Amino acid sequence: MKTKVRKFPLVIHIEPQQLLLLNKQCKYCTNCDLIIAKKQELEPLMAVSFSQSNPTIIGNNYFVMGTVDRKDWKEGNQNSLPPSEMLERIYIFKDVWNFEVIPAGWYPNQ
């Protein structure tokens, strides 16, 4: 089935102890309830968001934890919501899958 494109307020945890709320357009499978966020699209946006405020964090390990409601995302971006309260409002992903693209071609049996 074809995927749809929707905006999701993603919650990203960046080492050490940094949360980033990113309203990102992602592909979404309505049957599977699967959000597809590409690493190649996330990393440049994260670098831009921290280039002025905290450039030392760029390149650190990160993990996309889940999503939040749109109203919580707006409050979090206005810094009117403390991080401890934001953690209570996250819808944590049940599972995280990593996909790798394998180019087409003939490969020996392993």
Characterize the structure shown.
Strand 1 and strand 2 form a beta hairpin. This protein is of the alpha+beta class and about 110 residues long. The protein has three helices and five strands; from the N terminus they run βββαβααβ. The mean pLDDT is about 85. Strands 3-2-1-4-5 form a five-stranded antiparallel β-sheet.
How would the global form be characterised? globular
* Tally of contiguous helical segments: 3
Mean pLDDT: 86
Helix content: 10-25%
Give the beta-strand count.
Answer: 5
> How many structural domains does the protein architecture include?
1
Along the chain, the helix and strand elements come as EEEHEHHE
From the alpha carbons, calculate the radius of gyration and give it in angstroms: 16 Å
- Major sheet: size, sense and barrel closure? 5 strands, antiparallel
- Beta-strand content estimate: 25-35%
Tell me the structural class: alpha+beta
Head-to-tail CA distance between termini: 31 Å
Note poorly predicted spans.
Answer: none
Biggest β-sheet: strands ordered side by side in the sheet: 3-2-1-4-5
